[in-house]
Amino acid sequence: MSRKTVIIRCPRCGNKVFKYLKIGRGRLLKCWKNRIISDFSVHKKEEIRCSKCGNLIGIDEGEYIRMRHHIFI
Questions:
Q1: In what order do the strands lie in the sheet containing 47-49?
Q2: Does the predicted model carry a pTM greater than 0.90?
Q3: pLDDT digits (tens, 9 = 90+) for 14-70
């Protein structure tokens, strides 16, 4: 299984949202919280937003963040 560190960026403005340890291939549909290395986002209740433009990135589901946009392939 391949592991790599990726930087997830806002699809609207390109600002960094997360530095994340990705395991495996394919789309990033969920970000597991224990794999987030650095968090640059803004948390408003269960919503995760870009710190620069306020774009909705995902929804906090407890152990993971369900990504709104399929940001990384």
A1: 30-32, 64-67, 56-60, 47-49, 42-44
A2: no
A3: 999 999 999 988 888 899 999 999 999 999 999 999 999 999 999 999 999 999 876
